[in-house]
Amino acid sequence: MARARVLIRPKEGILDPQGKAVERALPALGFEGIEHVRVGRMVELEAEDPERLAELCEKLLANPLIEDYEIQTL
Amino acid sequence: MIWGVLQFPGSCDERDALHACTLAHGEARLIWHEDRDLGGVDAVVVPGGFSYGDYLRAGAIARFSPAMESVAEFAAAGGPVLGICNGFQVLCEAGLLPGALLLNQSMRFACRQVELIATPRDAFWSPGGPKSNERDDGSGERLSIPAKHGEGRYYAPDEVLDELEAKGQVAYRYAPGHNFNGSARDVAGVRNEAGNVVGLMPHPEHAVDPLTGSTDGLRVFEAVAAAGTPA
Amino acid sequence: MTVGTAKHRELGLTDSEFELIVEKMGREPNVVELAMFSLLWSEHCAYKHSRKLLKKLPTEGERVVMGPGENAGAVDVGSGYAVAFKVESHNHPSAVEPFQGAATGVGGILRDVFAIGARPIAILDSLRFGELDSVRSRHLLDGAVRGIGHYGNSIGVANVGGEIYFEEPYEHNCLVNAMCLGLAKTEDMVRAAAAGVGNAVVLMGASTGRDGIGGASVLASAELGDGDEAKRPTVQIGDPFEESKVLECCLELLAQGLLVSLQDLGAAGLTSSAAEMASAGGVGIDLDVAKVPLREADMEPFEIMVSESQERMLAVVEPARVAEVLAICEKWQTGSAEIGVVTDSGEIRILRGGEVVGEMPVEALVDGCPLYDLNPAEPEGWIYGNRATLATGIAAADELLALLAAPSIASKRWAFEQYDSVVGSRTVRRPESADAAVLQLPEAGNAIAVSIDGNGRRVACDPYAGTVEAVLECAQNLACVGAEPLGLTNCHNSGNPEKPATAWQLDRAVSALADACVALGVPVVGGNVSLYNEGPEGPIYPTPVVGMVGELPDPTRVAGSAFAKEGDAIALLGPFSPTLAGSELAKQRGELGKGLPQPDLAAVAAACAIVRDAVRAGKLASAHDVSDGGLACALAECAIGAGVGCRVDVQPLRDRGCSPEDALFGEGSGGFLVSGERVALEALGAVYLGEVGGTTIEIAAGDRSVVVGLGTAESAWRSLGAQAEHSGA
Asked: Do the Cβ atoms of C682 and C688 come closer than 8 Å?
């Protein structure tokens, strides 16, 4: 079984209010110089057939209209 | 005429939708998500709620249910399908409607009465009807309907939005001042190109009883009924 | 295996309680047994300091279908239907993790209602935090509101009302009280008592993990101090999706007659559910922890028995029907397992596979806990602080604006808009449109109304009078929508009962609740007590929260609170004799102290009946109870809601002996602000105050008159959102 981690992020250009809210809150907490915060999701799984992961991402784990994904094999 | 209202684990407004359907016209029954057989219904409603807890993305899991596969076939054959709130999300995830619904701009769930403008002006439902609708010129019929959602901000890339407007696929817009979730171009609901599948975020099934609010929602169900009644 | 003597103290048991356990068992308890005793003998589960007091409450009445002792109370609403309801607290978990604490509070009260076979149809919440200029309070408010919204919206039960107060004594000990109402056919309601020796015990719902291990004894029975960050792991995580599946599953099982009894798992998890079911039925129970579906593989038997994992229910099922029960659970995609059997041993036995790892007499566990007498002593003076936030000598108009903007008085729309108030199609009056929520019951051909009220500050001024006022507030709110009270549920939130001042407050409050309920003829059908709500800074205000349910025959005849139209007369009905004692204005001036006038129970009850009948007869265009902020605030609220001003003169109150200030901003029971045709209002015994009209709120009050623009008043009254979301320290 191959272990993998899928990172799912809002596509560039899509308004990401969560990312914006986090970014705006940082200076008050003492963190300067942090930009382009995007908030997404992470899915970890074990797959018998890692070849099918891209298809799984396209079909279910991410919505390709609004999200990018990245597969990391562990 | 017989309506079928889908029921998923986590659906909330399916009973309210059943009631609204029967008030409008005919009989209505629930279709369990695992049933492939839609039972010969004349129109399908995909109701509001939190199917599968909205886990992963709202509607992402429900759209793979056996019942939804049958609904896709029903829609491809021209059957009328109405998606409300989570139902709208399911239809977008299933590719039966264009676009996607994102987190409200305020990042909060909001339940409030909103005014919608139904476009085009002369019909709620016109399969093969008018091909173009400009942005609101103040003459569309206004409906007062409750909206209640946390992820209702309509999004589609600009090219897609242009195309939707050119082809008359914007079915409902929030009236000026009523777009509380940041939806692109104030879009509250869209229809597919053929015009038989419509989705909207606000809840017409909660606007059918003068005791609990306005009755403008009945107009939406009546229009679907007109499309679904066997000739 | 026996345990060392110090262990029991760590778990919150006193030495004498431990010795009593040893005596009842005839030996020292082992780890599993000690854990179970420590939870069931904790304050939260055993009501050690309050049970004797609560016996004063009247619990019977001809409309009572289920009284205290069952999962929820229920009253008959006619046509074969009953409405179940209860309020419960989830204070300590919410102070540590507000989102999940409040969410699981809602989850818990929902389960209490569907455990007796009633489909939940509404929830309400009563919340209290410190002042909003504190980052912590804003964080708790935000988290709690989000948590309640998340759980209630996801599961599809309408949130139809509530209250939120902000007072310094709640800064470190917030209050989250959640109330739920459900509907059932009376004949279908089910009790919790386990019955039938040889019947199977089935666990349904989510798998069992380490959520809330020791939650009851660690959190709810001790004061919060430093290091409560470390208590975070004991807060339970809620899953409303799982609960919606369990709910539908249970209701279907009950509809098909497949369950002998049903109980929800709440505080103290399997231990309390199993023990209480056995105790109610006079039987014994054997449970095999090896059969419990686990989320984590390596859990100890005692952990499994005290886990507070959410969304679980326990049922007793005849052996021949177990397969059907499991099949229906499978259909609803919710977990299920046969984990035990009902016996005639009178004992609760815990097994792991074939081995007995714990056994104790049910009676000792459930009823053997010592009950303590309080040592009440009235405190000399005002034991809470005072903080002036408003200068004296300013214009009355500015005082009105300061009161309208006070978070405790301001519109709560920012909060209730985050809740679904329409699902289920029963909501005739959404939040803020009338003094009580109204839900139609087409099945029964009538409607019900519900209100949840309390004022800790006024109870702190005078625990007896303040508690009577809370009950009257509910009754008045119900009257404004034409409803007659059927039953009441209450949650007493207090500090450490072992301290004489708190004991005195609790004693007086319960006496007052009993007297008020007897006077109004409203039975108490259930409730909850939450004690030890205090920290190094001191206790919270004693806060009895009252939830009252009433019925009304015709949901089309419900008065709203806001004025209806220009030209309507405005009048005051009822024995209203306001003073500034304990008022929001006194609080803002830093002038709070002991003492409140005693409300006239009989006179207020009579006024409620007049208003109720007038609403039912359609004689009132609007009806609004006068409460926080006094008459001036009530007038402003009615005007803002209508979008039109008013011109009134409070001379009738001055004729009763009130000073201009008392008349404008004084508080107390018995005031109904009504509008409609002058002749009709005066025929009811109301005194004319003025007229609806214009774009200003004008109140003539001798040398303290008020003129405020409607828009200005509305901006002040709608400022809660800005105050709640204000960022920065």
From this structure: yes
Cα C163 to Cα C177: distance, rounded to the nearest angstrom: 10
Length of chain B: 231
Spatial CB neighbours of A47, under 8 Å, sequence gap ≥ 6: A1, A2, A4, A53, A56
Tell me the C-alpha distance between C30 and C355, whole Å: 14
pLDDT (0 to 100) of residue C8: 85
C22-42: average pLDDT? 93
Question: In a 10 Å sphere around its CB, with 0-12 CB exposed, 13-18 middle and 19+ buried, how is residue C353 labelled?
Answer: exposed
Q: Is C543 on the interface with B (CB under 8 A)?
A: no
C363/C276 Cα distance (integer angstroms):
9
Minimum mean pLDDT range among A7-11, C7-11, C676-680 = C7-11
Distance of CA C647 to the CA centre of its chain: 37
The complex scores an ipTM of 0.94
Would you place residue B121 in the very low, low, confident or very high pLDDT band (cuts 50, 70, 90)? very low
A21 contacts chain C (CB < 8 A) = no
Q: Which residues pair with C427 in a beta bridge?
A: C439
What are the pLDDT digits (tens) for C189-246? Answer: 988 888 899 999 999 999 998 887 755 444 344 566 655 544 434 568 899 999 999 9
Chains interfacing with C (3 or more CB pairs < 8 Å) = A, B
Is residue C704 within 8 angstroms of chain B, CB to CB? no
pLDDT computed for residue C610 by the predictor:
98
Give the count of beta carbons closer than 10 Å to the beta carbon of residue B181. Answer: 23
Of C149, C245, C425, the CB nearest to B209: C425
């999940």: which residue's tokens? C100
Please check the confidence at residue B79 and state whether its pLDDT lies above 70: yes
Q: By the CB < 8 Å criterion, does A63 face chain B? A: yes
Average per-residue pLDDT in chain C? 94
Number of H helices, E strands in chain A: 2, 3
pLDDT in tens, B133-177: 444 455 568 999 999 999 999 999 999 999 999 988 999 999 999
Model pLDDT for residues B2-58, shown as the tens digit of each residue = 999 999 988 999 999 999 999 998 999 999 999 999 999 999 999 999 988 888 889
Domains of chain A are 2-73 (3.30.1280.10)
The reply to whether residue B16 touches residue C425, judged by beta carbons under 8 angstroms, is yes
**Assigned token pair, C389:** 């936030």
CB contact under 8 Å between C241 and B10, yes or no, is yes
Largest CA distance in chain B: 46
Shortest Cα distance, chain B CAs vs residue A16, angstroms: 8
Say how many C-beta atoms besides its own lie within 10 A of residue C134's C-beta: 15
All domains of chain C in start order, with CATH? 53-163+165-367 (3.90.650.10)
Q: Cα C290–C292–C296 angle (5° rounding)?
A: 90
Give the CATH number of domain B2-228: 3.40.50.880
Q: How far is CA C10 from CA B27, B49, C36, C220, C522, in A?
A: 63, 45, 14, 14, 42
Domain boundaries, chain B: 2-228
List helix spans (H) across C481-524.
Answer: 500-520
Share of chain C above pLDDT 70, in %: 96
In Å, how far are C312, C426, C483, C560, C616 from C557, measured between CA atoms?
A: 41, 15, 10, 10, 6
DSSP symbols for C199-230:
-EEEEEESPB-STTTTHIIIIITS---TTGGG
Give whole-number Cα distances, C401 to B199, C406, C578, C581, C641, in Å.
44, 9, 19, 20, 16
Give the strand pairing for C543-552 and C484-493: antiparallel
